Fold this sequence. Notes:
Layout: H1 4-7, H2 26-48, H3 53-56, H4 59-74, H5 79-95, H6 100-123
Amino acid sequence: MIPDWMNRTETEPYHGAASVAKKKSFGKKTIDGALSFFRESLISETFAKRKGLLQSLDPRVKLISMFVLVVGVTFMTSPWVLLVIYLLTLVLAYFSKIEVLWFVKRVWVFIPIFAGVIVIPMLFNVFSSRQCFGPDCHFGQRQPLGTNRAA
Length: 151
């Protein structure tokens, strides 16, 4: 009953051209947003159906390891360790049959936006003395905000 074209599984993500218009109506923006969401869902589905390393793992193992990775990276202070972890994610992407260049493009679009959300509030610091605010923000000596404790 299902047509053949619906049963086909694409192994390559769609790299179609994005539509560019100067002014779009609310309805056009809504439709474009919905289509973009479905396109991203289909791309994710193509990667999920590939026979790769991460696709073969149990979802619970992936969830626990992602949690451990995020918590571990949060406490890292050395940029070299973070670089090694980033290279490890590239290796995992490669063995999971994810195009590494596509993966790098997606990650490096998100990182500056996320970093900007974190850093921009520090540019407009309302504490002019740049001292810690509150009794529990330091261990031992008082440190000015934005300085490295190890230095």
